[in-house]
UniProtKB/TrEMBL annotation:
GO molecular function: hydrolase activity
Alphabetical keyword list: Hydrolase
Source taxonomy: Bacteria, Pseudomonadati, Pseudomonadota, Alphaproteobacteria, Rhodobacterales
Record's keyword annotation contains Metal-binding: no
Pfam families per UniProt: Hydrolase_4
Gene3D superfamilies, sorted: alpha/beta hydrolase
Protein name: Alpha/beta hydrolase
Domain named Serine aminopeptidase S33: residues: 217-447
Species in which this protein is naturally found: Parasedimentitalea psychrophila
Length: 483
């Protein structure tokens, strides 16, 4: 905060660290200290606008100044400048407050603000100009009605936003824009989601947090090869839908603990799952399982039936028990599952060969499937932004040399269906009618006659519904959230 004379009277630690000028330099010392403002990243025209505001303040003008957004050398940072009153009555003094707003205006931001607050194109253009650093007076020149018309538009926008004032509205909009930008970066794999860790006994579990800060909790149980990529790319949709998503990594993946004995794997994971529910105070979370995580998801829905709202299992892999069922698997999956079934000692070699294949052919090979062409899946497979996300998840999978994948493959070739007998929380299987990894017949045979279990077939769907038909997954989550 600057006094009307241009002195620095208050500053946060971050602002004081960048302020390069003298704190006692005012008009009597030759004017406002430009070096201090330059340290904040303000260029000459922006500094001139601040100097003009201070001049008007000293002349007891513009005390009801409309907050201005000033550009800086950093394109992702703007500074909001406004007058503030200190004290009341005759003892009141006025200063100029400068505060940072970190955001990047984009077409995505325009769409979000327009849809959220019902802003029309003219209002969006006004916001784009102001948040881009233009002065209201400069924007008023070519506008019919001049500055009075723009002020009226601003008050309409403030009313639509529900904010108590213009400064608060700017803060709200910039926060939401920054949130959208962060969601996009997470969904593209440019940055990792927020993470945490659960410790139980001598083991630990790493988990990631996605989606909304509050709302219906969802726990994602990943498959064997693509990790959390499938839900990470839905970051924006989860936030918009009000889903608070937790994505724990099982033992042997990422920075979770070492793999326990195979026969104890599910018991250890469900213990960790219970600890996650308790620590994060999750009330009736929905389990969301993907592909090879089907066994863990369904068994957890059975054992935690009173603590969870249900489970959605997408493209679930049922136990492979016959040689002919292996022939339908893609090459790398067939190699790993064959080793798990007939030569467990060869599993480390199979995983190394698979990892080499991914390095050679690129991470998009993780989505490869044997199925007839379909437009929806082609769109998914041709998404260039998905490659970086898959690569990050693949690295998590192999962080411990693929130990988790090797352990989990045991449950792909073992009859885990005996663990889901009896009463369970509702379980919904979303399955593509063209899924060549687990055929519809095999899934229906495994789940036929079980109470509280539904199998929903998705037309023209392969084994990657989480990527190609996410709207079906979100609809199923919403359905369970409403029960």
């Amino acid at each position: 905060m600057l006094t009307a004379s241009g002195n620095l009277c208050r500053a946060s630690r971050a602002a004081r660290a960048t302020w390069r000028g003298s704190e006692n330099c005012g008009p009597e010392d030759g004017g406002l200290d430009a070096s201090g403002l330059a340290g904040l990243g303000l260029n000459g025209p922006a500094q001139a606008r601040i100097a003009q505001s201070l001049t008007q303040l000293r002349q007891q003008q513009n005390r009801e100044m409309v907050p201005e957004i000033l550009p800086t050398a950093d394109l992702s940072r703007k500074l909001m400048c406004r007058t503030v009153q200190c004290g009341v009555g005759l003892q009141a003094t006025y200063g100029l407050m400068i505060e940072a707003l970190d955001f990047c205006w984009s077409s995505r931001a325009e769409e979000m603000l327009s849809a959220t607050f019902a802003l029309h194109r003219q209002e969006i253009q006004l916001l784009a100009g102001l948040l881009g650093g233009k002065a209201l007076s400069d924007m008023a020149s070519p506008t019919p009605g001049g500055i009075a018309s723009l002020n009226a538009q601003l008050q309409t926008i403030v009313a639509k936003s529900g904010a108590p004032g213009l400064a608060e509205m700017f803060r709200l909009f910039c926060f939401l824009i920054a949130e959208v930008s962060s969601d996009v970066r997470i969904a593209r794999g440019e940055v990792a989601p927020a993470e945490g860790e659960i410790e139980i006994s001598d083991n630990n579990m790493q988990f990631f947090k996605l989606g909304a800060e509050t709302g219906q909790p969802v726990i994602f149980l990943h498959g064997l090869v693509d990790g959390i990529a499938g839900v990470q790319r839905l970051q924006s949709q989860f936030r918009t839908g009000g889903f608070r998503v937790y994505a724990p990594l099982r033992c042997g993946y990422g920075q979770s603990g070492p793999v326990p004995p195979v026969e104890c794997g599910i018991d250890v994971f469900i213990d960790q799952l219970e600890s996650l529910i308790e620590r994060e105070n999750l009330r009736r979370p929905i389990l969301l399982g993907h592909r090879g995580g089907a066994a863990f998801t369904h068994i957890a829905a059975r054992r935690l039936r009173d603590r969870v709202a249900g489970a959605v299992i997408v493209s679930g892999v049922t136990p492979v028990r016959k040689m002919r069922e292996l022939s339908a698997l893609p090459g790398y999956s067939r190699m790993i599952v064959s080793a798990a079934a007939y030569g467990p000692g060869l599993m480390p070699l199979a995983v190394k060969l698979w990892a080499r294949s991914v390095r050679r052919n690129g991470p998009m090979t993780l989505l490869r499937q044997k199925s007839r062409p379909a437009a929806k899946r082609a769109d998914c497979h041709s998404d260039p932004q998905l490659a970086a996300l898959l690569q990050a998840s693949h690295d998590l999978t192999l962080h411990q040399g693929g130990a988790g994948l090797i352990a989990d493959a045991h449950w792909v070739v073992s009859d885990w269906c005996r663990h889901i007998d009896g009463h369970s929380a509702p379980v919904v299987y979303l399955h593509g009618d063209d899924d060549q990894v687990t055929s519809v017949e095999r899934l229906q045979q495994a789940m036929g006659g079980r109470k509280n279990v539904q199998v929903r077939l998705c037309r023209d769907g392969g084994s990657m519904l989480l990527y190609s038909r996410p709207e079906l997954v979100l609809a199923a989550l919403e359905e369970l959230a409403g029960t």
